[in-house]
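Researcher: Here's the sequence for the chain we discussed earlier.
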Amino acid sequence: MSAYPRTVVTEDGSEVQIERAPRPLPLPDPKDLGTLKRRLRANPNINLTDAAIDTAVGIFIDPPKVIRIATYASGIDGLSSQYAGSTHLFMLEGEVDGEAPLPIMGNPRLGHLLQGVPKGPRITGARNENGRLQAQLVVEFDSVADAEALVESTVRETLNDPGANYSDSILGHGVMTPVEAVLVEVRFADGSPSLYLIALYDGTSRATSAALVRYYDTTLTPPERVARAAQELRRALTTPSRKRRAAYLKQAQAANLAYERDGLTMSVLRQLQARRLPVRLIVGAQFSDEDNLDELPAAITAAQSTRHISVNPWREAAKDTVTAQRTVLHLRQAGRVSEAFVDLTEDRPLDESQVEELFPGADLKLVTDPATGRVRPLWRAAVIVHTLTNLKVSAEAKRFIRSDQGIGAVHTHRYAGFIGVLVDQPWRWAKPQTTDTARNAWRNGGVLSEEILSGRWEPVFAPVEELLRLAGTDDVSARLTLQVLAGTALLADGILTRDRGSKIGEDGVFYRATPPVLLATWAGTQHGRLQAVRIVRGFHHDRAGGTGTGRSLNVDYTYPLVDEKGDRVPSGESYRVLIEGDLFDQADPEKSAEGREEVHAAQKGRKLTREQRNEQWRFAVLDHVGRAATAVRQLEAELSDYPGRLSEHPFGRRADWKLMREKINDLGESLITVVPPADPEPPLFDDSEEE
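Model: Thanks. This is the structure I predict for it:
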């Protein structure tokens, strides 16, 4: 770009200041394309099939620069490199036609939005005719329509996310940061001819935003502009590379001539800024295991995570979710699970044949929601847990996870964490306060007790009352089914947590037990099973959950505590709601009583220091403020019924409301006047796992 600013008049008559006037679009010489092809084939660091090399050559619009990078001489070249797990990747950097890179693998960071796609792709590595593993992928779809639908859906959902639409920045500066891409052969199960193209694995937002700039039309509304960009990139999927290159040359010549003739008009600016796209294209790879077709897909996932960690760190749960989803797709490709199971893990509606396959002999109304066709969340969890703890399935899954995350071993508790992020998909958005706590509990074993891991059980698809009866007759499968159903609910609502067992005396917990060990003991008692029935009946996947006691989370609902007969414990006699300590009592009353005596004996005669007492009071203030906030939210929820179904205002009379407000303001003023000195240390009551 030239170094002086320019003013451009937009389509609506306003002015836009461009800091640097753009350069004309490059017009590649056919001779340079031939030279580039020879250099790519001669470079020993590049391992691509001839068809993939032809595809790579056809997308670059700056061949002279790319030729210099790709040339291997005196043992070196200009390729950039990166270690991703155990794989050494080599990338070729240059500028490509903006129409070439396509999001046929979706946008992983917006994966939760792409629920309308018929079916996702199946992705593996590729070999050449000599059996050597290549630095390219094979991406399989059922049909061309499925691939086109994925492209269109990805573009639409990306551009409809305000945080992913960079079109304004691209109009002023062009695409500044390279996108990341890999060469792929797209195959179709219905027999349609294969396609060779480059697929984005990072930079979907940049590439789709550039398309939105290119196809801007003043006669269209913003949603229609997004739809047009999506349709144009969908069409580009099946456009032959020669035809796409010819179209680029024609449009680049027209834009350059218009630039010389008319100056920097808005239509010319859109083409000059958004038609060129910087790219880092994988062209070579050194593998640690030439027999592992999944090594390159795993390396690409690791490389993508590294990119985001440097800019926008991914949390462990987010990385686990991506790995878990890829693991399921790998298991399908390896023939370990069925297509119906893949749809189940993606929480898609199932037809009757799929339900019968996954839930043999089950009542359709018991396991599915007739309104949506989706499996009911707890039954979905039971099948996912049962399938992924099958010994052959779990062995293959752990092997893939080791490769995907570059770790040496996947222990049972860690493996449970990957199951947990699949299980919580139906409610993670409705339970934001307890989801992180639940995922930590899954990473400490979740519901995977020793009997569950043995694989010697089958889910019993029956009402919970029947499961209770069968469990009382020593039916192991019925007991474990009830254990998984209720245990999943307890984890989801933050009642059974990761670390409570190591905090003796807190919330009435008086001995140590990890979640799977406690669940196994608890479900082995009649009292625990009676409580489990209440829990399964009362689980709401679309509402928040928790205990609402002590330092625990203040939320909308919880479960009642039941006595040894299964009846609800009346208010005033004991706890009105279930807390974690009750689970320990129900699982082993004698051990809990012994622990209680030990704690009380240790505390007896131990006088609290003034600092310890003050800390308790601070916790009490926080707890009461949290309860007050919950009460205010509940009262606010009642406002819509006043003065219709409610004759009295939820906040009472004006004097009542004024009194509450004055008390709250007085508390706030008191805290302002007693502010402690600045301190870099975090607050003592800050618990990141319960944030």
